Automatic annotation (TrEMBL):
This is NAD(P)-dependent oxidoreductase. Pfam families: Epimerase. InterPro entries: Epimerase_deHydtase, Lipid_A_modif_metabolic_enz, NAD(P)-bd_dom_sf. It comes from the Bacteria. Residues 4-214 form the NAD-dependent epimerase/dehydratase domain.
Length: 328
């Protein structure tokens, strides 16, 4: 089976291409940027380019996108062109080419304002039943692209799986308070409790989605590390998250203290990946427990694949105020 991977020069696109090539699977990478994992350079908005490289392709993994870090640096129209029109072009040409399955990489950012409870309310439990309330052009265009995917399943019978991935980027947090208060590793291990996924687990979810798409028809799933928390923890997580972590993982305090690390004082949302695990047969390997085990061994908490892909950034320049500028 030949797979087409869009966005092959990015974090997840490269990770997918690395895994596919290592497994000896036929895969073609396309991106607007040249890279060691990009076979053809061009835009997903260019219909002729897309049509040409869909010949002989049986499955598409559509990763290419403008991201949240681009909100402050790119006009809204470019988000619409890439995230909406580009996805539409891929869907239309995939149907015309007889593609058998289509996997779309979306984002938990589509939930937007639904991720932040009112003051004094418990932390939010985020599963696929939560109604998205996008709060920027990134979320709006990713949700619009999801709806296009669903439309093409209903009207054209294209098997499509939408994966709403939580954060897997290795760069420091965009929040200055988090950057000033926590090392990057400290913050990202904290996030494995409720809002982060290792890139190797993200890749395995995508490859399982390719295999399961025809049986599923259409599905939309949250891809995040498996949380140790339950709904019963939500009120206390919003008030005193370290107390909940201490009960679940008594050994965490000493492992953190040895590194001068801290837990986040509050957690505002928890991502639930149960439906993805059930529907896809997905078994993510990297979570908070595995990170603690790595700390005991003085090893990297990330997967070897995450280490290999490394940090790419999102722009061709460095910004004084952080890893990328944040739109007000």
């Amino acid at each position: 089976m030949t797979l087409l991977v869009t966005g092959s020069a990015g974090h997840l696109g490269e990770a997918l291409m690395r895994q596919l090539r290592a497994a000896g699977r036929a895969a073609v990478g396309i991106d607007i940027k040249p890279s060691a994992f990009t076979d053809h350079v061009g835009s997903i908005v260019d219909r002729d380019f897309v049509r040409r490289h869909l010949r002989g392709v049986r499955s598409v993994i559509h990763v290419a996108t403008l991201h949240k870090p681009h909100v402050a640096t790119h006009p809204h129209q470019e988000f619409i062109d890439t995230n909406v029109s580009g996805t539409l072009t891929l869907l239309e040409e995939s149907v015309a080419a007889g593609v058998e399955s289509f996997v779309f990489t979306s984002t938990t950012s589509t939930f937007g304002a639904a991720l932040t409870p009112a003051p004094g309310a418990p932390a939010a439990w985020i599963d696929e039943d939560v109604v998205p309330i996008p709060k920027n052009i990134y979320g709006v265009t990713k949700l619009s692209a999801e709806l296009l995917c669903e439309l093409f399943h209903r009207k054209r019978r294209l098997p499509v799986v939408v994966l709403r991935t939580s954060r897997f980027f290795p760069e420091p947090d965009d929040s200055i308070d988090v950057r000033n208060g926590y090392s990057t590793a400290n913050a990202q291990v904290n996030e494995l409790l409720y809002r982060r996924v290792d890139i190797e687990d993200a890749v395995s979810a995508h490859l399982l989605a390719v295999e399961r798409a025809r049986a599923i028809g259409f599905g939309r799933y949250i891809i995040s590390s498996t949380t140790p928390f339950t709904r019963e923890d939500l009120p206390e997580l919003r008030r005193d998250a370290p107390a909940v972590v201490a009960r679940r993982f008594p050994e965490a305090a000493a492992l953190y203290a040895a590194r001068g690390w801290r837990q986040f004082p509050h957690v505002d949302r928890v991502y639930d990946n149960a439906r993805a695990r059930h529907a896809l047969g997905w078994q993510p390997r990297y979570d908070f427990a595995s990170a603690l085990d790595a700390l005991r061994r003085d090893a990297d908490f990330r997967s070897p694949l995450a280490e290999a892909v490394g940090s790419k950034g999102y722009h061709g320049q460095v910004f004084e105020e952080g890893p990328y500028p944040v739109a007000s």
